[in-house]
Amino acid sequence: MPGIIDLTPGIRSLQIHFDNCMLPEETLLEALLSAEEELPLVDEMEVPTRIVHLPLSWEDEATLQTIQKYMQSVRADAPWCPSNLEFIRRINGLDSIDDVRRIVFDASYLVLGLGDVYLGAPVATPIDPRHRLVTTKYNPARTWTPPNVVGIGGAYMCIYGMEGPGGYQLFGRTIQVWNSFRTTPNFESGKPWLLRFFDQIRFYPVSHDELMRCREDFLHGKYLIKTEDTVFRLSDYHRYLAEIAEDATAFKACQQAAFEEERERWAQAKYTATEIEPPPALSPDVIDLPDGGCFVDSTVAGSLWKFLVAPGDPVAADQPVAIIESMKMEIQICASRPGLVHSLLAVEGTPISPGQHLVILAPTL
Hints:
Elements: E1 4-9, E2 14-18, H1 25-38, E3 46-58, H2 61-73, H3 84-91, H4 97-106, E4 109-114, E5 122-126, E6 142-145, E7 149-153, E8 156-159, E9 164-166, E10 169-173, E11 200-206, H5 208-218, E12 227-233, H6 234-243, H7 245-269, E13 294-297, E14 302-307, E15 314-315, E16 320-326, E17 329-334, E18 339-344, E19 351-352, E20 357-362
Parallel strand pairs: 3-11
Antiparallel strand pairs: 1-2, 3-10, 3-12, 4-5, 4-11, 5-8, 6-9, 7-8, 7-10, 13-20, 14-16, 14-19, 15-18, 16-17, 18-20
């Protein structure tokens, strides 16, 4: 219709961006009601679907690094640390982490949403309800997540489209789901996203080194993924659900009991975000500044992730000397002038206040 700028489908919604100077809201609503009346009965619906086979490095190095960084700078005592896989196992009532692995690789994840915050990130849920692992999300959330790690939040699986914050429980890493600059057999011209609505994602295991080779080649079209075209019929699916109803009900009951047991453990242990009293900000009066020396101060409140320099290092003007994690962002703290690092005044992994002294720079000899 003239006046419609963009349509953004969600899992249970359709966002319509329209120009109300060209298309009055009343006219649009009338058209939507008319279109809804013309839809076929739900049980008669069928949609094209592709089975998309993606490589997955189980508990990849990137996921372990993500968890370690979270423990260092956000919350070391979280129930999902130090192992997201153990947390997934426990909260779903499974006997072993091998059971988690088996379910993930057996599942066929139906894509119900695309672009979950980030580029082409799918929101998908297993077709078989016996494969629907559930989790809580990180609280507080991670400030950093590598691109294309895979995790579960609530009952949904998501592949992170790009580097950024996040809260899903991670179990591995796969190839890219977005390609900004090239058209390849797997990325159509003008469509940089890999996946489509109603795709079925199926993972197969690869090693970390093999995944790195796949990721290197994939964006250039040198590595191709296997896809199979088929049709998803809701009537067939309902018959399948009826056939497995007893097993699915038993799985859900066991899962729900484990979930409640986990939450009860939290209540008994009184899990809260780790409380660390920030050290008092030091004033120039109590610090022995070298002649001609200066402070490098934090510009924001947050957590000191790491120093990028050590005592004795030369520093140029505008060179980053530390990284602060704040509001799900990594913020570089830079030197305002050149010098030599005299001393470091804070501890990595501790809270930082705005204006707090982090580094003393002595003048360059």
